[in-house]
Design a protein that fits this description.
This protein is mainly alpha-helical. The protein contains four helices and two strands, in the order H-H-H-E-E-H.
Length: 174
């Protein structure tokens, strides 16, 4: 019968819910008749600002903008001349062939090195810097847009909450 099918569906839903909570599947699920409304709006603006700054979507785009700025710095540094000093060590064994009379036979060699890299094609580094700046601007703008969307959604929820409070007050007066 239809009632049996609905009871079976409710049992399956209760089992799934309890599994998601990590409880015994036969545990009772309590559903309240009504939900309490938050009593106060104290600190709402600071809470809202904190939620917008720490929202995963906003943080995602902010961090992508930071990464793009870092790529720009790396591209800039790659376009600069670089000087490097080094020391090479060459291990040599003693020769035992017919060239026994060689001076310094078997002595290891230490070779100081100096290299200077001059980037000849500067335009590719400038292009990489410009691309990184553009990406950073895009990600920052996307983060601002996402924050605005979230703020609008929070304003809608706030309006619905105020409306629900007013309706609750009206129903209590009647």
């Amino acid at each position: 019968s239809r009632r049996h099918i609905l009871q079976d569906a409710e049992t399956r839903a209760r089992h799934r819910f309890n599994r998601l909570l990590g409880r015994d599947t036969s545990a009772a699920v309590e559903i309240p008749d009504s939900l309490p409304l938050p009593a106060s709006d104290a600190g709402k603006d600071t809470l809202k600002a904190g939620r917008l700054q720490n929202h995963p979507q906003t943080l995602r785009y902010t961090r992508q903008a930071e990464a793009a700025r870092s790529r720009g710095e790396v591209a800039h540094r790659n376009g600069l001349p670089s000087i490097s000093l080094g020391l090479d060590y060459i291990w040599t064994g003693i020769r035992t062939t017919s060239e026994v009379g060689l001076p310094d036979n078997g002595q290891d060699a230490i070779l100081p090195t100096l290299s200077i890299d001059l980037p000849l094609y500067r335009r590719q580094h400038e292009a990489a810097e410009a691309q990184a700046r553009a990406e950073a601007e895009v990600h920052a703008a996307t983060a601002r847009e996402e924050a605005l969307k979230l703020a609008l959604e929070m304003d809608d929820v706030d309006y619905q909450l105020r409306k629900a409070r007013e309706e609750a007050r009206r129903s209590q007066r009647q």
